[in-house]
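4.2 Preliminary Data

To establish feasibility before requesting continued support, the project team ran the inverse folding procedure on a target of 321 residues. The structure was first converted into the token representation described in Section 3, and no sequence information of any kind was made available to the design step. The complete token record follows.
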């Protein structure tokens, strides 16, 4: 199965909190091209369907400029609908640089780079605990295997806080409380009348129910925001499709009845609850927690894959210092 992500576009819901480094959308596109990872620069429209949302578009554009994205174009409703005739909106931001990528192919290519550099992928190796010393970090697996490491990067996604709690010597005050915001997706039965990704103005805790395309032109809608108690709660409830129809029809009023099919769900690794101030992308190194050689990545949700190369550079720089 091909997974699709925006890979060289700034995400409009980005809070800007602890930005990992300079924007590298060109690096990602060139990296995929050099390694033969399938991708497509399709573009994206961020659409406003109410007067209040129109006012938000300019703020979003300014935030994008602050993050180094200078090619967003503000369109009125007629200009946007000229680009996408099935669309209905009052205004839009056009991101011509947005693209999609085969994320599975991307991860395999990254793994190939690791192995070329002498690295090894070890799966099904649960960690029992870790002991932090001044000159090394000792990792003890549940089967008793003991490894000595000078560098450890905790990039465990939704499980990153739980993994960090296994590190003896790491002050618990540096470990955020995990929260789980489930995102459900529905697939469109049939071909979508859009050539670009269509995103609504962001909502609380997410980017709204948006339309994305895969490399074969298949469309899916999502994610919504459903706060859950467990990261294992991944069942898509068909009745949630009722709300999807209402949201999608704000920008695609001719969405046919019965066209949405439950697809899959994912969990955002939130480090704040539904009624707390939002903060994402907590990249925490020795300067913050005092453990030499350890970097914890908390709250790395979308666009974590988008900015993976920039995050990698940031982590390497923190460890080099």
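Position-by-position output of the design step:
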């Amino acid at each position: 199965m091909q997974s699709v992500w925006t890979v060289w576009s700034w995400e409009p819901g980005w809070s800007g909190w602890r930005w990992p480094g300079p924007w590298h959308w060109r690096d990602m596109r060139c990296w995929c091209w050099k390694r033969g990872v399938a991708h497509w620069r399709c573009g994206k429209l961020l659409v406003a369907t109410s007067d209040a949302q129109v006012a938000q578009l300019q703020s979003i554009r300014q935030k994008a400029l602050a993050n180094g994205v200078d090619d967003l174009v503000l369109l009125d409703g007629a200009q946007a609908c000229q680009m996408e005739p099935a669309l209905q909106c009052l205004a839009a931001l056009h991101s011509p640089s947005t693209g999609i990528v085969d994320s599975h192919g991307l991860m395999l290519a990254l793994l190939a780079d690791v192995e070329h550099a002498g690295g090894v992928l070890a799966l099904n190796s649960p960690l029992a605990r870790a002991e932090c010393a001044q000159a090394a970090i000792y990792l003890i697996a549940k089967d008793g295997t003991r490894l000595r490491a000078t560098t450890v990067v905790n990039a465990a996604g939704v499980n990153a806080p739980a993994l960090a709690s296994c590190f003896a010597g790491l002050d618990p005050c540096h470990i955020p409380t995990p929260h789980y915001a489930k995102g459900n997706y529905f697939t469109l039965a049939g071909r979508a009348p859009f050539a670009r990704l269509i995103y609504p103005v962001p909502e609380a805790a997410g980017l709204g129910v948006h339309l994305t395309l895969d490399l074969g032109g298949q469309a899916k809608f999502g994610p919504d925001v459903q706060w859950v108690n467990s990261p294992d709660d991944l069942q898509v409830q068909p009745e949630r499709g009722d709300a999807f129809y209402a949201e999608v029809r704000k920008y695609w009023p001719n969405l046919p009845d019965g066209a949405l099919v439950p697809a899959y769900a994912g969990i955002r690794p939130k480090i704040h609850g539904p009624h707390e101030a939002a903060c994402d992308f907590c990249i925490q190194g020795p300067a913050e927690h005092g453990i030499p050689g350890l970097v914890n990545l908390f709250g790395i949700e979308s666009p974590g894959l988008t900015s993976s190369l920039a995050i990698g550079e940031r982590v390497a720089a923190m460890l080099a210092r």
